[in-house]
Design a protein that fits this description.
Layout: H1 9-36, H2 45-63, H3 67-70
Helix pairs in contact: 1-2
Length: 77
């Protein structure tokens, strides 16, 4: 699958910032869960989803490709 660039420099910068914030929030939530001694159970999905979303946003920023735009949705950035 070829990823064609479908976002401009502003969109790339926005997605990079969003991705970094997602990675940091995911790591902070893991640390908070561990420090608080919370039983993980299915709760491990929360930090995994936050961290995965942040990593995907960084991927979009690096490739210049946006999944939402590729699916036909109009995004403001």
């Amino acid at each position: 699958m070829v990823f064609e660039c479908n976002i401009d420099a502003r969109g790339k910068a926005y997605r990079l910032k969003l991705g970094i914030m997602g990675l940091v929030a995911g790591l902070v939530s893991v640390a908070a869960f561990c420090i608080a001694g919370i039983d993980w159970g299915n709760l491990w999905l929360i930090p995994l989803g936050i961290t995965g979303g942040g990593a995907f946003a960084i991927f979009e920023a690096r490739t210049g490709w946006c999944l939402a735009r590729a699916l036909g949705f109009k995004t403001p950035l």
